[in-house]
Amino acid sequence: MSLCPFTKMHGLGNDFLVLDGRAAPLALSAAQVRGLANRHTGIGFDQLILIEPSAMADVRLRFWNSDGGEVAACGNGSRAAATLLGGQLRIETAGGALASQAQADGAEVDMGVPHWDWQAVPLAFAMDTLSLPLAWDGLANPAALSVGNPHAVFVVPDAWAVPLAELGPVIEQDAAFPERVNVGVMQVVARDAIILRVWERGAGATLACGTGAVAAVAAGQRRGLLDARVAVAMPGGDLVVTRRDDGHLLLAGPAQVAFTGMVDLERYA
Fold first, then answer.
1. 240 and 145, same structural domain?
2. Residues 148 and 222 grouped into a single domain
């Protein structure tokens, strides 16, 4: 048995298992991630975060969803790791380099600029990404964009009325999205406030989603519905997304350690 230390964190209920592979490399399989993610027989989480050394930044972050699939970006996960590591950091991710600043109760992360080209999302074929000519049982014409991972954002009159548990997995796996897609339903409350629910690709409905908040605000701003600074209310609490003059989107909000422990990774191999 070889025990590995871990940290369990959450950002507004969006929870993470954080492993540190800087001193000794850690190799994780999809089966291991799924086993660790099981909330009955493992530790349980929405995403797993692995901290690694980086040749181009202070650290490198890798992310896995609870279904065992590795993904390029995770906004709340980046904030959680930035909170744990502290200070001001340059973070390497597969979705691009990020700058972070720890705050009193969490962290702010520069998520960069959104990408609207249909191939960047990606989509299966060329479409107007500001309003896709697609519909699913009353949800229609989403904006599609990449903020390091793919998102489809629907503007709806009542975010809580949408049967997201039913429609989320259908839209996530629609053939229009060859790498699957995160699904957000956004209700605009005011020019500086929205209500958002997200069905996360590979994780399902979560209490909060950082990249989902960034994508929703970017979509609302591009459609002329939102101002530069927007409070995003999700089931787990509030995040703030701010657009800088250069188009970069900053994601800020709380994150905290829930508990720490030791785990035998080989047990889940």
1. yes
2. yes
pLDDT at 192: 98
- Neighbouring residues of 190: CB distance < 8 A, sequence distance ≥ 6: none
Residues serving a catalytic function are 74, 209
Q: Residue 2's pLDDT is what?
A: 80
Place of tokens 């390497």: 92
Task: Pull the structure tokens for residue 91.
Answer: 């973070």
pLDDT of residue 1: 67
Same domain, yes or no: 161 and 264: no
